[in-house]
Amino acid sequence: MYGVLAKQKNAKNDADSRNKEDSVSLQKRTQKAIGLLRAAGVPKDLDWVAADGIQSYEEMGTPATTAQVHPYQFTTSMAQFAEEKGVKIVYGSATSIEQDEGAVKSISYKSRDSSEEQKLDADTVILTAGPWTKTVWKPSPISALRAHSVTIRPSRPVSAYALFTSIDMPRGNGRRGETVTPEIYARPNQEVYACGEGDHLVPLPTSTDLVQCDESRCQDIVDQVSAVSEELRDGEVTAKQACYLPNVNRGGGPLIGKTSVKGLLMGAGHTCWGIQNGPATGKLLSELVFDGEATSAQIGSLDPRKFGV
Fold first, then answer.
1. Which end of the chain is more exposed for a tag (fewer CB within 10 A), N or C?
2. Domains in the chain, number
């Protein structure tokens, strides 16, 4: 279930009082705390958020209208299914797409096991390289935004909620007060995923293996979610990580469809919604390849050619 949680300003969050309170794990909430949660409209089973200082709660969905997909499990499972159907997966990095007289001719790539560049002849290419799209095809109006995230094993099992928060962090320890908006997702494997804001501090590397993770930004996320949940504050951080999101430079997007080059199709620029919209993107692109047109949805506004591709 999805919810929006806003933490109230000036709610018992000066540095001295917090230091004293943060040193004790209550394990169970008092009746007063439970009453505060109910007064803010927080559902009864969302009992792993701090009661003090909650200003409001707004429900965005129900178990009947929302679901969660684990990115790693989903993508690796889809790859396995594809291989079972005869697809050959080459692990490596595409470097360029060659064309001849306005049509796709071949792809150049470097295998993960060799630094030698190789070529693969092709008359149809589907470009779905995420933030690396522009690296492979220069005309693509796709830029990259770095984003950090953490996973935490909470101090006790938590209920199934995804929270889009707005938290007013306290001043103190040389830090100015600010409003932050981390997203918090409870996962079914006794794990909570949390992500923060993006940055452009480090350019996109040539491969995922070279992505730099800034531990201080990950710690910021841990501090932020700890401010609204004792279970997360007392939990164990199991991963600190970073990734890059593909953004369409002129806004809008994603870009899905044929390009001005015959045989070259594109599905890129999904920002943080790639896992959600990826399957539909794949279906639409398959329709374009095998049927000549997309029939499952109207995607005229997402046509890459409108963006000069």
1. N
2. 2
Helix or strand holding residue 226 (H, E): helix 215-226
Query: In one letter, which amino acid is 143?
Result: S
Same domain for 106 and 177:
no
Strands 264-268 and 125-127: parallel
Residues 266 and 255: their CA atoms lie apart, in Å, by: 7
Q: Are residues 187 and 264 in the same domain?
A: no
Q: Is the peptide bond before 43 cis (omega within 30 degrees of 0)?
A: no
Same domain, yes or no: 159 and 237: yes
Tell me, yes or no, whether 167 and 229 share the same domain: yes
Same domain, yes or no: 21 and 157: yes
List, for residues 32-66, the tens digit of each pLDDT value: 554 555 566 788 889 999 877 788 888 888 889 98
For residues 159-176, give the mean pLDDT: 79
Q: Measured between alpha carbons, how far is 229 from 235 in angstroms, rounded to an integer?
A: 10
Give the integer Cα–Cα distance in Å for 99 and 62.
49
Model pTM? 0.83
For residues 171 and 84, give the distance between their C-alpha atoms in angstroms, rounded to a whole number.
55
Same domain membership, residue 293 and residue 186:
no
Residue with tokens 């792809």: 107
Do 124 and 201 fall into the same domain? Answer: no
How far does Cα 211 stand from its chain's mean position?
A: 15
For residue 28, pLDDT over 50 is answered with: no
